[in-house]
Amino acid sequence: MNNQVNERFRSVAGEIAWGMAGTGPDVVLVHGTPANSVIWNGVIERLQDSYRFYYLDLPGYGGSEKFDGQDVRLRSFARTLREFLEYCGIDRPHLVGHDFGASTVMGAHLMEEVNVASLVVADGVLLNPWGTPFSLHIRQYEKVFAVLPDYIHRAILAAHLATSVARPLPPEIEAALLEPWTGNIGQPAYYRQKAQFDHEYTSWLEELYPSIEVPVTVLWGEHDRWIIPDEGRRFCSMVAGAELRMLPDAGHFSMVDTPGLFARELDAALRQGRI
Which among 150, 216, 243, 248 has most CB atoms closer than 10 A? Predict the structure, then answer.
């Protein structure tokens, strides 16, 4: 748990927690739901001698600000990422996105017109339809779930997170993923982001994928139970030159299940000039 989000940046969607580590080409790491930037720790630790990593907690996630009425749709994340890159003065970065982070980096490039060197997506929310049955059920009954007793809420979330990986979550990672979603602020924020699932935005992105001209690499956990690997193959069929790399022994949180393998595959793509 060495990489901290000690910096703060105010976006139109609220105050954002972020951090930076390493030296080398600029690589921006964007997490998905219901995670935060802690998922990248193992990758950063392995590659920070070769790349300068920027990592942030999306609006309403992790250590970033959470408040009633906050816009936590995918379109808001893409705008926030553009603002963040402008704030940091990062020009033509390599963008890496997982889950919601995948549509965030795609939206930043295709909708917000961010100039990038390359795009990498992992186990991505990229194509409709998406959302686990559990998440879609919550979307219908946000107000009911938001007032559950704390111990029930924690148990439900822990059980849900357990299905995101192919092996038990390390206790410190599980705690770092659970804690931001607890308490009077965190629990409503968890159900708020479920209620704002933005399927319209991914429909818009689907129309633009064939226009991508920068290198695209796709990493996918072979045992992903949240988004099946066929979705990665379907996405690659829409993007000229996109390459799919399957990660054995990994679930949806592939960089948590197999951080060494994930880092090696990412580094190999970098060194081969794909990104």
Answer: 216
